[in-house]
Amino acid sequence: MNIFHVPLISQKIPQTFISVIDASGSMRPFWPSLVKHFNHYIPKENAITITFDTTPYFVADNILSEDIFKHGGGGTNITAAFELMDQKIDKLSPNQMLTILFVSDGQDNNIDSVEYRLKRLRGSKGRKVTFICLGIQSQFPTFISMQLRKLYHNGLLSVPALYLIEYCSDVALFNKFESMKSHFVHKQLLSISPPVITFPWLPPQSQVYERTWILTSEKILLIEGKEHTVDTSRVAIESVIEMFRGYAQELQMISLMKNPEITAYAGKALKTMKSLMSQYSEREKVDLNVWIDDSHLLKVKFYERCKLHELRHKQFRLKAFIENVTELAKGEEVKELDEWEAAKKIGVGTITGTYQQKVLSLKKFTIEKYEDVRKDFMKMYKKLKISPETDQGVAEVLKQTQKDVFLEPDFEKALELCENQFDLAETLPLIGIGLQLKRYSGSLEDPWMVAVKAVGRTTIDSLSLFHSCLLYTSD
């Protein structure tokens, strides 16, 4: 089977963006940062904004105030906010597409009656609706939120149901809004022939949404009557990751709704996932099941190290999705977990990892600055004629000098693969004499505020030093 990404072929689709924002007292610590990012990312036209505590409030200009008490500040009544939302939706054209963003950090105050109150809500009522949740920290009302998703969402299934923030901060909120924004615009449902597989447990489909990842054995597909060629020559690891994320999320949602077929569905998905992993390994000559350890990274050249470093980050994600689906195939379901653990399962693939959080949180030397410096360096590198002769000692572990690294034939290609400062530090070795330094409190601002305590006698490299520090720390 071949993976195919359904193209975006329609023009911008008219829609209304609806925000339902928890403004209860517990949101107070996060409110200023939430307001900043909400006001920046959320459209102000063709929009409806509702905040709530025990009472819902309509925000006429769609701009949140930094004063939470203008929007609530008390208890939490989730369903009251959605009842007001239903009233606002009734005034819109029946053909208007909707995107709903629900943001909350805590449970409804009247949990005993919430099931009854949810039944009073009207749901999508045939409209095209995308429903997304942004959950903040461990009290997020997972099960209520997923019931709301089931009630309203009938759009693209691969749109993540939940974006989860485990530790809320300004950077964490920025990361999540950056991730969510691509799903704020509706995708069109398209005809496709021959029918294709969207999920392994469903029969082949003759209609799919734009930007959907699908499986097909065909080489030519007709989409809205136009021919599209399926690339059968290779499997991109990114496409495998996206398919796995979609499978894991949809299965967790099915599990939450207590579908008795969940174990069988997960079994079919797992079989397909393993098949795609084997396809990738065979075509790309890389076994995804074999973990790339640190010692191996020290035995290869810069370009190969960059490729393996990138692959290892992707292995982390693939492993998480497979473990997720394997648990469901064994009968370990989301509904048996507490709300927080369920949220983490449903939000798998949308939780920003520690590595990426570090990258996105860099302030003084941002990714944009790094890219400028990298371009300037490459311009100078191309002009230089580097001779192999050197009186520098050879690094004990890597068995290279700094010139050896710069003269590797794929040095430029390797540097292009270093998309951020962390990639660079973990793959490009700096070779020289080691120094033992004492850092003073201002050294983060002024790098010269250090004192040299000792000078090494042998040539070392930054990579082996870095990996040895990791091993020492883990021991």
Folded structure, characterized:
The structure is a single chain. This protein has 475 residues and is an alpha/beta fold. 40% of the residues lie in helices and 19% in strands. The protein is built from 16 helices and 14 strands. The chain has helices at 31-41, 78-90, 114-118, 142-152, 170-180, 237-256, 262-284, 294-297, 302-329, 339-346, 354-360, 367-383, 402-406, 411-417, 421-427, 462-474, and strands spanning 2-5, 15-22, 47-52, 56-59, 97-104, 129-136, 162-165, 189-196, 205-209, 213-216, 220-223, 226-229, 431-439, 450-461. The chain has a 6-stranded mixed sheet with strand order 4-3-2-5-6-7, sandwiched between helices. A 4-stranded antiparallel sheet has the order 9-8-11-12, with no helix packed on it. It has a two-stranded antiparallel ribbon with strand order 1-10. The radius of gyration is 26 Å and the shape is globular. Residues 348-353 and 470-475 have low confidence and may be disordered.
SSE layout:
Layout: E1 2-5, E2 15-22, H1 31-41, E3 47-52, E4 56-59, H2 78-90, E5 97-104, H3 114-118, E6 129-136, H4 142-152, E7 162-165, H5 170-180, E8 189-196, E9 205-209, E10 213-216, E11 220-223, E12 226-229, H6 237-256, H7 262-284, H8 294-297, H9 302-329, H10 339-346, H11 354-360, H12 367-383, H13 402-406, H14 411-417, H15 421-427, E13 431-439, E14 450-461, H16 462-474
Parallel strand pairs: 2-3, 2-5, 5-6, 6-7
Antiparallel strand pairs: 1-10, 3-4, 8-9, 8-11, 11-12, 13-14
